[in-house]
Amino acid sequence: MASSGHSDLGEVTSEIKASERRTAVAIAEERSRLQEMLFLLGLEAYQTQKLSLQDALQISSDSMKNWAPQTPKDLPWNFLRKLQALNAEARNTTMVLDLPLDTRPVEKESQMEEEIIYWDTAEDISADIYSFSELQTPDTPVNPLDLLCALLLSSDSFLQQEIVSKMSLCQFALPLILPDPENHYHTFLLWAMRGAVRTWGSQPPRVVGSFREDSMVLSRAPAFAFVRMEVSSNSKSQLLNDVLSPGHRQQDCFWHRDLNLGTNPREIADGLVEISWFLPSGREDLDIFPEPMAFLNLRGDIGSHWLQFKLLTEISSAIFILTDNISKKEYKLLSSMKGSATKYYFILSPYRGKRNTNLRFLNRLIPVLKMDHSHVLVKVSSTDSVGFVRRVRAIVAHVTRSPCRRVSVEDMANAARKLGVKVDEDCEECQWAKDRMERITRKIKDLDAYRRDELRLQGEPWRKVAQVEKELCQIQWASDPPEKYRAELRHRLLELRMQQNDHDPSWGVQEFISGISSPSLGEKQYFLKWMEWGLGRVAQPRPRPSPEMIFTLRPKHCGAVDFSEPFWPEPLGVEHFLREMGQFYEAESCLVEAGKLPAGQRRFAHFPGLALELLLKGFPLELIDGNTLSPASRWVTGLLKELHARLERRSRLVVLSALGMPGTGKSTLLNTMFGLRFVPGKGRGPRGAFMQLIKVAESFSQDLGCDHILVIDSGGLIAGVRTEAGERFEREASLATLIMGLSNVTVVSLAETRNIPPAILHAFLRLEKTGHMPNYQFVYQNLHDVSALGSKPRERRHLLDQPSDVGRATVQMEKQGDGIQTLADLAFWDPEKQHIWHIPGLWHGVPPMAAVNLAYSEAIFELKRCLLENIRNGLSNQNKNIQQLIELVRRL
């Protein structure tokens, strides 16, 4: 018996070595396949200098076209554009070949008209039909998984992270292990996965705190792997989708053979491991499982990808093996799994394979893998699919009810390291940045105490300064300003600024400044990302309200929820460290202007340049402080001056802003349109207004009329308070006027058809007096009546024609008379222009497992095209250069 055991072990070892030799041969073949695929997709140039996030997001002429890819080289850019727009069809790699000029359809702005073609003879008909068919057939179809792998291999770490984050929002399965045969190693995408953050509920029914928002990298859940052994008549990806799909609605998380181009052979994607999660909504009538579950999918045969399969056995609670045949080779490999804590299940199609052989090997595997006959499932063409899926779900539920391992993606990465798999996060720059972040966040024990002791120039000192500056601004425009009072205010302001300037940056702020001062651009970007996540983890735990709680809050006035007091304390974020830098710069600049400090003694003059580097790399910077509702004008001006010096000849600028109350979807709208990084407020995010810079491609800047677009998100500034709120309302109205006054184009995001925030209406009335009116678009989101999407502008006019109490009160405050009660009564209102948009909801169904709504993506694209057309056609305010914007900031 012992001899037999040694013999079996020797055979297994020999089989594994043989498998490794076959893998080495396959790697050599795959290397040429990879190079061919990269060349086919036009990505070969990005193997040394990787594709960056800024490359992917810049505005070009293609940004205004809703076109189908015509060649394989179009596919990567088409995927990135559609993914940015949360388009559910982003993975579709269907191509329409370029037609001769005389047969190309002409794209029209208006609705496409049918073309009727008349043919002279039957001979002509047949000739033209065959000719047209040849034109439409792509020569080189590309499997979507090959496209994804090639693009990830050609992207830097930050673009990889953006791709994975958007895929998560689209409910696509995420790449976890990326095969790279060119360099003889696979990569575990831990860093790329860190951007995936999801929210889910818990059972029993929701109460305050029953919703959890967390990074999918950190959350532990049972993991279930689905793999193929040799050939399987059943599609494991389709089975996974069926298991994850609630009710009758099909969820195509995993790309599978029954989808368009799903049967195309994979050239480089074999060995890819994908992951997706089931996340409960908290409703027993909707949830398939009561807790989060992770599902993993290995592309390709386990015999050819033994390393990936070995990892799956280390991290999974159960593995489902789909096969038609169990060969001697596969039996020996599986026998080496003896002693594993993982449960194994087989899904067979015996009529297509060798039934008796399968049974013989299964009987020998049962004691080795600690299985019983319930671990063997049979699925043939006559099997009831619904009942089979129900059985698989029952097995998953049974495994989770018994003691089983629960793992996070971080745990999976640790297991991968032990097996020699490269982890993307282990690069030196990333680890250096993580260490610095941990040194800073380790000292944060209490948020309020940290703000008070470490961020000393904010809070009460900044509020006092903001109040004095506001009073100075008000008397500046008075017809007969009292000089004595003005002098007192200036003296008080200098005293406050001197008190601020007497402080030195705290240790934590100095560490932050050192982090963003690194000469390595990669280190800076890693550091900022780590700081965002690290500060989010140390924030005091706050219960998250369910969507029902938010939408059933009873309004105080006029149908508007009162957001004047935030639901949650503002979380500590990177913006607070940058705000502290801004206050040091403001205090010093004020003293230099007043002659109280020699210019040669400045210590913080370089701060705007440090912040500008972040803005140029796509990081949003705070324009208006949400706590004091005040702009740090010297800091903003310093940033713009640095920007002007940096951009030199490419300094033509268009300012696009989005205003609206929290929860109306404006941040998500901007992020979807332009791929930006504004934080959706959801009632508890950053309260201030933020700005982000988008580059316009040089080949398109002359046509568009600008070199960059500065996008401003009003965040939580416009709370919807009534005119009776006094100072708070006046401050909101002033800030809305400031943002709109800076803008060439303004998008007003609304949630209810008759509820325009009074501060925004107030701003329109003020700007109408000055003649400085931006091009404006009103966007209604999350309408219950989705059919309104297709309605025409003239059919929508009544939506803003109804007078409201808010409108009357605001108009009376501006002393415009009783004749003006709504926006439709204002002189600038042109009902013939399409000012009103209806954007359907983002989700089909109940989150977190709801599919993205294709109509949302399409509507956002049309809005984006309209905005860019208006900029190009000069319908917005005259485009500015940065010097003009600096002067406008000063005047406003």
UniProtKB/TrEMBL annotation:
InterPro entries: G_VLIG_dom (IPR030383), P-loop_NTPase (IPR027417), URGCP (IPR057365). It is found in: Cytoplasm; Nucleus. Pfam families: URGCP, URGCP_GTPase. The keyword Endoplasmic reticulum does not apply. Residues 650-890 form the VLIG-type G domain. Its main location: cytoplasm. Keywords: Cytoplasm, GTP-binding, Nucleotide-binding, Nucleus. GO terms for molecular function: GTP binding. GO terms for cellular component: cytoplasm; nucleus. Belongs to the TRAFAC class dynamin-like GTPase superfamily. Very large inducible GTPase (VLIG) family. This is Upregulator of cell proliferation.
